[in-house]
Design a protein that fits this description.
elongated; mainly alpha
Length: about 210
């Protein structure tokens, strides 16, 4: 042995140093391999989620806009979620602004009409339902708004998140004609979708 002539303590220190180097090399190699493996896994998951978001981006925007304005359900779906997702899709170039606004417009328009026709079908007996009693504060606000502003309440209600999902319902209960409701609601949804597009673009510029 090369160190046979050296004291025992020196030989022990030498062996410990060799062991440390071997352990460090092994650990570094294992760590590098693990890092590469996790990085590869992360990249694969990210690519899959990106592909999924790109494929279903329009249905997602449409669905959230629909749910946000859907009678009953809309009380629990915040518009902030739609804005956040729209901003994420736009800022990552997954969906352009025109498609975001169009999908949101269609989802909102269809949901508003669902609420309107539901209101026409239920009629005044809605006021005696458990739902009306539970959420009477929001319902009173929507009803007061319609009584005060008439058809213009459709536009105002679309721009106020707290009563967005129940304003069309009261419009239907009130007996407003189908043609007049559709005409005003198209305008309301156009203004709302344009506002969504403006906010999405503004936030993207601010964080970019």
């Amino acid at each position: 042995m090369l160190l046979d002539g050296f004291p025992q303590s020196v030989r022990c220190q030498h062996e410990c140093a060799i062991g440390y180097v071997k352990h460090h090399v092994y650990t570094s190699t294992y760590s590098t391999r693990s890092t590469r493996r996790y990085h590869s896994l992360f990249s694969s998951v990210t690519e899959s989620l990106t592909s999924l978001a790109t494929t279903y981006s329009i249905p997602i925007v449409f669905g959230l806009a629909f749910l946000e304005a859907c009678p009953g359900i809309g009380l629990f779906v915040t518009g902030a979620l739609l804005l956040a997702i729209a901003t994420g899709l736009y800022s990552n170039s997954m969906l352009d602004l025109s498609h975001i606004m169009l999908a949101a417009f269609l989802g909102a328009l269809i949901s508003d009409h669902l609420g309107y026709y539901l209101g026409r079908w239920i009629g005044p007996r809605f006021h005696h339902s458990r739902f009306a009693k539970k959420y009477h504060e929001r319902i009173d606000r929507a009803e007061t708004l319609f009584q005060k502003h008439g058809a213009a309440a459709i536009v105002i209600g679309r721009l106020v998140p707290a009563i967005r999902s129940i304003t069309p319902l009261f419009t239907g209960i009130s007996g407003l004609s189908k043609g007049r409701f559709s005409l005003v609601d198209v305008l309301a949804c156009v203004l709302w979708a344009a506002g969504l597009g403006a906010l999405t673009s503004g936030i993207t510029l601010a964080i970019g």
